[in-house]
Amino acid sequence: MKFSLRKDRDNATSQADARRTVASTELEPNETTRVGVFLFALIMFLLGFAVVFCATLPWLSLATVVAAVAAGFLLATAFRVAPQWEKVAVLRMGKFHRIAGPGFYVVAPFVEYAAIHIDHRTMTSAFSAEAALTADLVPVDVDAIIFWLVWDAKKACLEVANYPKAVLWSAQTALRDAIGQINLADLSLRRKQIDRELQQVLGDKCEQWGITVMSVEIRDIAVPLELQDALSKEAQAERERNARVILAEVEKDISEMFVEAAQIYDQNPKAMQLRAMNLAYEGTRDGKGVLLAPSSLADSFDVGKLFGKE
């Protein structure tokens, strides 16, 4: 018994690890490149180095080489470019000065510096809530994805230390809170509603950081293996109960129809005779069988008696 429980626990752990591995697997990178930015910096460095080196070429020495390297470094750090999707927060003497970019911008050496490069494209971040308890105290693992973007680079730089991490942690906390308010049976049925609630909660919280939450989508809900069998049996029992209820309702309707028919036959004997004739016809119309019936059934074929004629 202990070996079986240990085996089930190991299987559950391995399947949970495999599910997290699949959920965390990302597609092949299809990101834009920053080669142009580094190439521009390299060109600025070579330009500054070449100007100073050529100017001091007749007096070539270690000092002139150091001066050329320093000139190239200063030129590369002073003249910069930012890609179309990027903005740069520039600080002057430790205080916020401006938002530069996209495109060409200048930074005063030793006085200004680029504090952070902020991507203004729509970002997608996957997060999960492992072993989150539902309202009926069932632990579930939920994987979700959030779509968000930075609309105010100044707030993202000054209001929060690490805005991508802050968004993920806030999303994870909000997801746990949403799961804790509903039962396990309602978790899958209310997935879209939970998505909208999470978007509203995160949107209100991230607004102060200059971030807009576009949407939140739950990708996967994993129930522990020890509960899957119980849930399957519960669903099977529920379907069997519904089938029996439907069968009982059908039998009740049929019995009521029989009672109504009996009342009609009792009030009108001719209806009973017509029914007997119909049964006889149904039993012999294929021409392959012989009808065996009591003599009272033969009286039903007396048309004269049926229509009141002697």
Automatic annotation (TrEMBL):
Signal peptide positions (record): none
Alphabetical GO CC annotations of the entry are: plasma membrane; side of membrane
**UniProt entry tagged with the keyword Transmembrane:** yes
Task: One Pfam family, please name it.
Answer: Band_7
- Does the keyword Ion transport belong to this entry? no
Q: Where is the Band domain?
A: 77-235
Record family assignment: Belongs to the band 7/mec-2 family.
Protein name from the UniProt record: Slipin family protein
Q: Which organism is it from?
A: Parvibacter caecicola
Q: What is the lineage of its organism?
A: Bacteria, Bacillati, Actinomycetota, Coriobacteriia, Coriobacteriales
